[in-house]
Mutator family transposase (Sphaerisporangium album), 430 residues
Amino acid sequence: MSETAAETLSMNEPTSKPHRAMSDEQLISMLVDRARSEGLQLTGEGGLLQQLTKRVLESALEGEITDHLGYDRHDPAGKNSGNSRNGTRTKTVVTDVGPVEVRVPRDVAGTFEPQLVRKRQRRLSGVDEMVLSLSAKGLTHGEIAAHLAEVYGAQVSKQTISTITDKVMDGMAEWQNRPLDRVYPVVFVDAINVKIRDGHVANRPIYLVMAVTVEGHRDILGIWAGDGGEGAKHWLAVLTELKNRGVDDVLMLVCDGLKGLPQAVEAVWPRTIVQTCVIHLLRNSFRYAARQDWDKIARALKPVYTAPTEEASLERFYEFSEVWGRKYPAIVRLWETSWSEFVPFLAFDVEIRKVICSTNAIESVNARIRKAVRARGHFPNETAALKCVFMALMSLDPTGKGRKRWTMRWKAPLNAFQIAFEGRLTPANL
């Protein structure tokens, strides 16, 4: 039954014109119809897809040994050639359609090295890609193993899955040390906390830097693991590393208002303007107010950060202080302390204002990372945490549509940056 259905794939080259003109669609239709008529399932154990995969692999392997030996099976030219076929050995490989048992040809001299299914290889590349994709979505190794067993009937151990995901660390090291552009219009910095079990489970920061290139593309510049709470001292080391990798100039850096960060930025890029996220400033304000006053405070502060100029914003802030300063003096002090990092965006037109007034651009990336991290709970060590974050970042835009949206969204702001910063983005300054 199954042999008959699969034999079609290994038919010799037809001699009649109608057969030679058969399209791929017709061939597939013929195989499916024959399988159904003989009661053969398309998928599952022993199904048509598994048998076709087996025939394709074995046919390709036969072609490889033919190329290696230099003559076809049963060809007299191979007589006394010094090397010949020596039967086959059977091995099972895990594929996207489940485990497939294939016969791998051997040669007498033992010099044949198959490339499609290499020696000691037990998985085809599609399985590795699937494991990495599932891991990037936050699934644990046990969950991935269960998924592969349930859907594909493939038995892949947790240790094997760990080995597959460990391969990304080599790519991560190369990515983390790659040369960077000499200038970026905007850089967003932030940190997210992950739970790492180092003696005991504790929160550790993962530092993330995201830039917008002069072409309007999103570029994650790197990720770093901290050893405690988020601190300006560690940010200084991160920014210094970025400069050593080639970043000579950053026009604006947007952050969440961390104390000491502006001084760290100035030490690395003296001309960079530091902008505090307005949304973070509002959230921090609510910490000092009773919940029933949050809406009132938000309405009272809106004229401050939507004012047309810094002078107008200062007037609106004085009005806010007169109304709310006595009840919530801590909110007033918070804004006074953050004022020099709050006001820079007010000096620009609306095209620049709307993209630098908050860290929303990097928050969308953080949301994807948090989703993957939350699914894992906590990590045994720093390396495991960085691996999870890295894989989440690499799977941010699988279709490429996000890249197009970014380019369109940043087209107008980048034109405004060119004018506002007097040519610091021109090729002559790159």
User: Anything to note?
Assistant: Residues 1-86 form one domain.
